[in-house]
Design a protein that fits this description.
This protein has 4 helices and 9 strands. With 186 residues, it is α+β, with helices and mostly antiparallel strands.
Amino acid sequence: MRADERDISRYFKRKVGTKVRDVILLRDKRTGRHKGCAYVELSSLNDVERALKATGKIPEFQRFPIMIKRSEAEKNLPGASTSTAVFTPPGASSSTNHGGQPVQLNEDGKRIEAKQVYVGHIDRCVTQAQLYALFSQFGQLDKVILQMDMSTMISKGFGFLTYRDPKDANLAIQTMSGQMLAGKPL
């Protein structure tokens, strides 16, 4: 919450390697404090793919990973993808299964087991950083996404975690299923 537009712009220029035109922090109308979310306008559409790869990395101005998504406006461009970015670890290639869902393959061409975990019944006060802190104890997390209502920026009460190892994902499911978080069972 201490980051400002300059911090974000500097991160995208130096660490991500993209040119930034503008950074707009979303702010609370009553307090004027930013909500921990920003729109970053890049100089070129070619930089978008590079920026999406920075999802899950921890910038120097905070202690938890950032989440980068395409803007909703880009879905109207010809040939643009309408989905959010899919993180593919180095050394893995991605294809799709019969349902059109991404399937990750290792270097030998063998399928990598599912590593995504759905977490439901999350209290509205729980943040993405808190989910990361709680679930990272089970193994390396590549991504934590807490679904938010875009008009109110309030949690919808569910999210998704992506682990590097399927065993870590299963351990998290077995351990945390039914556990209380902020007064609600997960």
